[in-house]
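User: Here's a structure from my thesis project, written as structure tokens. My advisor, Dr. K., wants to see whether a designed sequence matches the one we expressed. Can you design one independently, without my sequence as a hint?
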């Protein structure tokens, strides 16, 4: 696994800012995840939308890096705790 890979969770108006921030910190954006499956398979700002949050949580998250881009702090906390619990 490439430890410089990072996955952005949340596709919205702030996505370009988080992409730029992740790349400035030395990460390679490996893909995006949207809150639901409506946009799976699309690209956003040149990056593939790999699936939904539910799809992601069915994967092995061990040692994967994530950037949560959503603005709602309650959602961010819930998703973050799920990722940490699963090894992300």
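Assistant: Designed independently from the structure alone:
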């Amino acid at each position: 696994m490439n430890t410089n890979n990072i996955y952005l969770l949340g596709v919205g108006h702030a996505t370009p800012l988080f992409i730029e921030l992740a790349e400035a910190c030395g990460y390679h954006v490996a893909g995006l995840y949207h809150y639901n499956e409506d946009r799976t398979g699309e690209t956003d700002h040149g990056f593939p939308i790999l699936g939904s949050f539910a799809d992601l949580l069915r994967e092995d998250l061990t040692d994967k890096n994530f950037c949560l881009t959503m603005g709602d702090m309650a959602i961010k906390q819930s998703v973050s705790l799920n990722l940490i619990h699963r090894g992300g």
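When you compare it with your expressed construct, this may help: The beta strands are 5-9, 28-34, 43-44, 47-52, 65-68.
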